[in-house]
Write a structure and sequence with these properties.
Number of strands: 4
Strand content: 5-15%
CATH superfamily of the largest domain: Response regulator
Number of helices: 9
Keywords: DNA-binding
InterPro entries: CheY-like_superfamily (IPR011006), Sig_transdc_resp-reg_C-effctor (IPR016032), Tscrpt_reg_LuxR_C (IPR000792), WalR-like (IPR039420), WH-like_DNA-bd_sf (IPR036388)
CATH class of the largest domain: Alpha Beta
Shape: elongated
Order of helices and strands: HEHEHEHEHHHHH
Helix content: 40-55%
CATH topology of the largest domain: Rossmann fold
Strand order of the largest sheet: 1-2-3-4
Structural class: alpha/beta
Radius of gyration: 18 Å
Largest sheet: 4 strands, parallel
GO molecular function, one term: DNA binding
Number of domains: 2
Organism: Streptomyces cremeus
Protein name: DNA-binding response regulator
CATH architecture of the largest domain: 3-Layer(aba) Sandwich
Length: 187
């Protein structure tokens, strides 16, 4: 924050990341910077819409720039689906953050070269949304019957989704599939 406040031409507002940009009723932002792991629920719900521009998703037309790491392609995918225009590696030089903010403020895309391969990998999520949903409930400790009841599916269908998730991730079992999906950031 201190780095950005010291940067000429920047006005920095600190807001609650769970609420999203402009949540406190301040002036509209040009760029909203968020940790990709902590995107607010409103933006996560926007994932999968036809629009791929954060200016259609973020209040006040703010461009979304996310801080991420390359080893979590699922998180990068969710940020992309939420309409992020910029991607900055949170483990690299703060100068890149300034470059990214300036690019997104101009309405341009900005991708840190260290995240480019991770973004490519993010397009290769092998599991369908339904398989991810079933696996996510299993990760929370739900049994097959509970998952079936929650998702309005038959028990056999739930078992088929779990088997497909295990096969597609190359896992040995359900627990291993949950570990693989979780470490990739898919759920």
């Amino acid at each position: 924050m201190a780095l950005l406040r010291a940067e000429e031409g920047f006005e920095v507002l600190d807001e609650d990341a769970r609420l999203g940009p402009c949540a406190v009723g301040g002036p509209p932002a040009d760029v909203w910077v968020a940790d990709a792991e902590e995107l607010p629920p409103r933006l996560r719900r926007a994932a999968g819409r036809a629009s791929r521009t954060s200016r259609d998703v973020a209040p006040g037309g703010a461009g979304l720039l996310v801080l991420a790491t390359a080893d979590r392609p699922g998180v990068l995918r969710r940020a992309f689906d939420a309409g992020a225009l910029g991607y900055v590696d949170k483990q690299l030089s703060p100068c890149r953050l300034v470059e990214g903010i300036r690019a997104v403020a101009r309405g341009e895309r900005y991708v840190d070269e260290s995240l480019a391969f991770g973004l490519l990998r993010a397009t290769e999520i092998p599991l369908t949304p339904r398989e991810l949903g079933v696996l996510s409930l299993a990760a929370q400790g739900a049994c097959v019957a509970e998952i079936a009841l929650e998702l309005h599916l038959s028990r056999g269908t739930v078992r088929n989704y779990l088997a497909a998730a295990i096969r597609k991730t190359g896992a040995r079992n359900r627990v291993d599939a949950i570990r693989i999906a979780g470490s990739a950031g898919w759920m």
